[in-house]
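G., the chain you wanted modeled:
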Amino acid sequence: MGNIRPSFIKIRALRLVELYPDVFNNDFENNKHFVSEYTDVSNKRMRNWIAGYITRYQQRRVD
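Predicted structure as tokens:
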């Protein structure tokens, strides 16, 4: 059973992937760094949530 994420996490994550398609990849640490660089997310939990969703999204796109 997977995690259910709120729609505001998905919307922000997909918008970032659309704007910066070459930056994000399957590496969580890389995505975490770029999420904090390209957004104004102030707390760590939301940054990690968005980076985690981007990571899983990229892994599903490759398969």
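The chain has one domain: 7-62.

Shout if anything looks off.
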